[in-house]
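note to self — DONT lose this again. spent like an hour looking for the file last time. sequence + predicted structure for the chain T wanted, 939 res
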Amino acid sequence: MVSGTLFHCRKNSWPPEEYISKSTLQLFDFDSAAPPSQAWRRKLNSHASKLKEFSVTFTEAIKMVRLGIRLWSYVREEASYGRKAPIDPFTRERCKPSASQGVPLGGMGSGSISRGFRGEFKHFQILPGTCETSPIMANQFSIFISRDGGNKKYASVLSPGEHEGLGKASDHGISSWGWNLSGQHSTYHALFPRAWTVYDGEPDPELKVSCRQISPFIPHDYRESSLPTSVFVYTLVNTGKERAQVSLLLTWANSIGGVSHLSGDHANEPFIGEDGVSGVLLHHKTKENPPVTFAVAACETQNVSVTVLPCFGMSEGSCVTAKDMWGKMVEDGHFDRENFSKGPSMPSSPGETHCAAVSATAWVEPHGKCTVAFAVAWSSPQVKFMKGKSYYRRYTRFYGTSERAAVDLVHHSLTNYKLWEEEIEKWQNPILNDVRLPEWYKFTLFNELYFLVAGGTLWIDSGVPSSDSVSTRITRPSNEVKVTKVKSNYKNGVQVEQTAYNGYGEGNHFSSSDKISESIITGSDDVGRFLYLEGVEYIMWCTYDVHFYASFALLALFPKIELSIQREFAKAVLCEDGRKVKFLAEGNWGIRKARGAIPHDLGMHDPWHEMNAYNIHDTSKWKDLNPKFVLQVYRDFAATGDFSFATDVWPSVCAAIEYMDQFDRDNDGLIENDGFPDQTYDTWTVHGISAYCGGLWLAALQAAAAMAMHVGDYAFAEKCKGRLIKAKTVFEAKLWNGSYFNYDSGSSSNSKSIQADQLAGQWYMASSGLPDLFDGVKIKSTLQKIYDFNVMKVRGGRMGAVNGMHPNGKVDETCMQSREIWTGVTYGLAATMLHAGMEEQAFTTAEGIFIAGWSEDGFGYSFQTPEGWTMDGHFRSLIYMRPLSIWGMQWALSMPKTILDAPKINIMDRIQVSPYTPQETGVRKIVEKAKCSIFRCSC
């Protein structure tokens, strides 16, 4: 735990007074209008530099040339079928990434829209696995102010700077609008899931404006957090002596990003809802995916009048042009009330853009205050995957499957956002008010959660495909997918047989006799099924070796979702998919999914039914996936105390452990790596015993033994302890060099490298309340070595921990990944240090990621934290899952009571140890058994 004085005297990192005058802050000191004292901040006129992508060295390119050729061929083959490859390094986005991101809109799993700190809406991820990065510049907030009977007027888009695509002011499109904001006196403040933009006298020197963006991301609330909507609350303070008429305008294009607004057949429709909520619906049709409907609305009150312009265009031939719309607002400050009586617009023609506008007008008295609220929602009830299956999103359980649910969503958000804020503040304040913690850590901790919205998350209501997808389902040959029967002793030795069905093909239905197998998937809490991408560039759902790091966030905030993901993988362990796949690294062929192996991911184009979209290596031979499954299952059980979860997944834990026997080739209890990158570092070759995989294996044996005791399988507990005793002796004898564990037991040039991630197994032991893998002296010595070399020898500790470092203090440049700094691994390392009582080293290590990624002096990776970067700041894979592991640090700082209050007795010592001899168990037989069909099972 962090001491009470370590950071007590530390100066606030980013006090708001350095960005906004104290007098302005005092004016907004009501109704949450003022930004919090802890937040990530930018001036709106800050330079948003272009980001620099990594490149491989000549030596690395030579090593990977065959992989590159095979990958290029595979990418082209997938494109010929109209599909994306999960990894495509050859295609670049039209919009170059820049340091301009901000807090995204919406809850989890219903699509997302990002919003830059300057106010631009971009990174549309409405369709699963698709990210349209370019901003839609017609989507803007604007302000119109009239004083002194109209003799003083101000009009401006509330987004500063020169923007790409803007032409001459005489054009009929958005170039004709007033892009007058300099941004010099305007600032952005981010504390996910909220953001504040304060316009301190821009464009009117006597008007202070605060815009508060709120999304329903509320831990442990599985309803509100699934809603695709956001609210924008404007607080207006008139510091002048004259009454001011202020009109705020929200314009929105009928688009789901990219050039979709030009595809045609889109229509807009005004609506008047309940409680003064009025606006426009924008119905958007897609060619191959279900339709999407946006609702943009404002809330009419006694002092606020709402009017709309349902449809305007960008070209001279439009009935009403963007230029006409702007002129009307400058002249009158509102639209005609009669516009509400207009029906749906004519569908747009190809090449034509339809936009909508919602205006909210209020009078603000001298030295008076006023609040105006807008909302944006989108209803895309159905998701359809490339290979045919469709599902309903989670929010449809509460709002139905009509696209018109967008009206109800904006109404709900505009009438409930204050309740959201109460819950958000109740969650965040204990951490924000903890004086022991550095300021940068507090807001970075919350802001890294952006990924659970903007990381391509998908949350469906149940595992059953929607009815209209039945005709397009793909039926697999029955000899390709297999079912297994598991016998395992648990609950005081009572043997229970469990049938586990694979979800492939059309076999995803359960009879009344299959209740145990169904409970593996859903458990007692039906929270639907949740997917999130490894990253927007690596399009694979729930990549498991990375989820190992990121899962701390879900476990802490949405534990039912975390358990549901573990159930998905527990089910997958017992299944096999015999379809042939070509692995691109070596060009060899193998089966898609081996029985007993944890899948790398839940798929891409047909998740749950076609796992392992990753095809660089054969991941059934990876050495970290199975141990990571066992470790996560035990940690989740220890944290939640959910005994039904433990008993449901226990057969899968046994199978995962038994599967690894094949990699212990000398029967010393320890697994060996196979001379290729057979773990999450998939370009970094390992020979023999490795510190990373070997340490994970030791930890998995200890976790499996502890869990076996809980479920009553004492024989398996004894077996795991026997293996652990043998393996640990060998591990230390072959890898411990007196100050740290060598990278591996081979004889290559990097075998003695210092790997930053070598104590990943120990991290999980400490996080789960289990005994340390090694004595405290070894753990602290190793962590200090990593800190001194991997952290402090890289730009003085201001970049994070480099993955590999030679003992002579030179970076290990064996491969691309050994020389990279991985953001999520650095956070995980810091968490391990916290568990070991090394608080100063921990926060210094993690602060390197903040300095390089989030600070104004850094590389500009805020709200798009990449997998990693090189010493010169070149990134690889923006918007990546693993940095969520910063919540592993918070886990170390505030362990749950279920773990803290658990008996301190070493459960391993309670097992009667006998000489270990391999035994044939029901689980072992299943792992080795061949050819059993899910449809015509002959077992």
